Amino acid sequence: MYRMVSAKMVSNVSSSLGVILLFFCVFQGKSPVAERDAHINSEALHAPLLGDEANDASNISSDDNVTPFSKAGLFSTISFWWLNPLMKKGKKKILEDEDIPQLRPADQARTCYLMYLKQLSKWKEKGSSDPPSMWSILYFCFQKEIVISGLFALIKVLSVSAGPLLLNAFINVAERKNGFNYEGYVLTMALFVAKCLESLSERQWYFRTRLIGVQLRSMLSAAIYQKPLRLSNDAKMNHSPGEIVNYVTIYAFKLGEFPYWFHQIWTTCLELCLALVIVYYSEGLATVSALTAIILTVLVSSPLAKLQHQYQTKLQDQQDTRLKAIAEALANMKVLNLYAWEAHFRKVIEGLRMEELRTL
After folding, report:
1. d(C-alpha 272, C-alpha 284), whole Å
2. Could you report how far apart the first and last alpha carbons of the chain are, in Å?
3. Is 234 among the domain residues?
4. Are 315 and 338 in contact (CB under 8 A)?
5. Structural domains counted in the chain
6. Which of 266, 287, 267, 264 has its CA nearest to residue 277?
7. Is residue 117 a part of any domain in this protein?
8. pLDDT band, residue 357 (cuts 50/70/90)
9. In a domain, 44, yes or no
10. Are the C-beta atoms of residues 81 and 69 closer than 8 Å to each other?
11. What is the pTM of this model?
């Protein structure tokens, strides 16, 4: 009986001390632990899930391992001297991912996409109800780079066309026709300068058009991947993931090749006209036979060009179908494994690939 009373008294005293302690805690305010927890909770509500380190990692720094092309001077840009550090490193060892320098800020997909949005906003400010064409947006986004690469293409065509004229002058010097002293040396230096200009301008033309293509693909890929985020559920039913991947892998790549082939088209026409002028200057009316041969070649090859265009269109449609089937199979891989349909879908995809190969 005495032990039961003693145990009851101890429990009452302990509970009384606990109540007094809680009473003082309530009137004292928040404890350091509570303040720390509240601070953590407030930060968790506002800060991103991965923290500031992830944001710093996602942003490409302008100082850490950025390509030397971003700070290259005139001589380094023309001669591609900025590639030497990477080539020296590749000569010593096999290049790893961390050895490859990062892109310039101007070449990043985020920068290109913001430029795309800026052009869209300018178009909307004009008050036009019709949506802008993709060609106009691409031109206003990259008009400066397109003009500069076009100037290099023009220099290349003119330097190539100067070669036959200089060779004709060499022949006249060899036949001891009228000329001035040291004409051979002057012609040699002129031919050397023309070939140097041809080489440098051609490399810059190819490099700059390919660089525009990379920026264009980055911009279109970002715009394409941003579009599904704003689609409704009904619209997503009409645009499968396979079609979206197909837009990025095929159509964005084709548009990225457009700057190079755009300059290739008009430079070829200009080079052909200059060649006809040079031949007429050298041979006279015999140029008519060469022009007739060119016209006949174009007329004969036009049916083949149309046939090639038909097969190219058919090939793109088959690529769309194959990529759509692959994307849907990968998206529903759990269902395929559950019902053991892997072999059937593999045969379907292989059949689509064989049709594509036959067209190719």
Report:
1. 17
2. 101
3. yes
4. no
5. 1
6. 287
7. yes
8. very high
9. no
10. no
11. 0.66
